[in-house]
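How a chain folds remains the central question behind the approach discussed here. The record that follows shows the chain in one-letter code together with its fold in token form:
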Amino acid sequence: MILSVHEPHHTTHSSPLPIKPEPYETHQSPRPCAHLPKTPLRALPRILLRIFKARPGSRPPAMALRVVTRFVSSKLAAPTLLRPLPLSTARSLPHGPSRLLSTSIARMSPSNVAPFYEGEPEGPIVKTSVPGPVSKKEIDELHEVFDTRALTLLTDYDKCFGNYIADPDGNVFLDVYAQIASIPIGYNNPALIKAAQSPEMINGLVNRPALGTFPPHDWANVLKSGILKVAPKGLDQVFTAMAGSDANETAYKAAFMWRRAHDRGGHQVEFTEEELSSAMNNQSPGASNLSILSFKTAFHGRLFGTLSTTRSKPIHKIDIPAFDWPQATFPQLKYPLEKHVEENRAAEQASIDELRAVTRKHNVLLIVDEVQTGVGATGKFWAHEHWNLEDPPDMVTFSKKAQTAGYYFGNPELRPNKPYRQFNTWMGDPARALIFRAIIGEIERLDLVANTARVGSYLFGQGTFIAFDNPRRDEFLGRARKFGVNIGGSGQSAVRLRPMLIFQEKHADLLVDALEKVVLSFKE
């Protein structure tokens, strides 16, 4: 089963269970009114969620109240309360915005706090329209040889630094999208530049080893001092991969091979001639009838296997053959939130506890997709740490902010019983593993997970993993760039913020100021 710890639409990476396509208990939502415990809530007026979820008398984070007040009163869109991740639909805010409109709280940002890295711009600089004349010319040139229809911003990476991204026209934007949630510690980070200039890095880049057959002699040390140093609790082994979709795809394969070995009687049992011959014709019993259960609205990638568990947008799936695999409706919180605080809290924990118990009872593997939520984005290094699981997931996939990819596991039987069954030429990239090691070093040195938790609390909620729906999303994103902020979209209508781990309170102030201007611009 692939269980989603992610966000709306594009990012709802969940977790898969390899199961047989027969009536199965986990096809049903574990609880009708619960969501996975403490998963990141995805709503920009996140303060709305805080207000209705907080205990009576509690004070909401001051930072966001102003924006939400303007947002609600702007008539840009009906105010919404979005369900906890990974659900993608919204509910109307009950009783309207009156109690928000009467409140005004001054910002409390320590604006004079120094950035983590010297040389970062003081704020956005917008000199031209976006794209500007230089960008337009270079985009036209690029389009002759490369599909640019998904292009958001032609970038001058020499001029990017820290939390800021620049274009060839001299515009500089506060980047709260970060290469689709993939930049953890800023552009042109000095520590990463130093790592990139090391003899180890040169060796890995120039000689590009096929890691499955010709790994470097120090590969074990590279893994132990980097990727495995931050392994989730109980998972002490890793399969390295190239990207998030690749990580999920190979995790699925590992799950299927493990299950079939178990059904066969163990790793020591050899394949039958019938299995070997039928596999060559894509037939059973060699080609198994196992499946992965994922959640509606989930996103796990665009490769053949992962695409059958992705259910966020039709455009991802149309025309592509797919497996007939099951899906479950993600459980929900009870509304109104302020009337069900304790009930929802208990249901959240019970939901994940019961789901884990069901997977164990039926010998089904639980795969948690942390491609986008991992590496600190939610105020914990891994988002599933919020779930308080006594029994860890069987596999956890990762990529994006890790700058590399793969899956963690603990059970030695998740290694296939024979070589070359889980294999490709590169099996990861030692250069990227070295970059992740340097990233981990900076995260620890600067205590950036704690920074994200603190700034997330100042901004809206749990970490900085935030999104909200807007029926005029594309126009909203374009106007945000006009005011110096690069924000991303997801799914049909979601706006998602994915700032870096070096995002501070002063950046949150700049973000809110810009969003106020965006909202007010719709009234002009």
About this structure: The longest strand covers residues 237-241. Residues 4-109 have pLDDT under 50 and may be disordered. The first helix runs from residue 46 to 53. DSSP finds 17 helices and 16 strands in the chain.
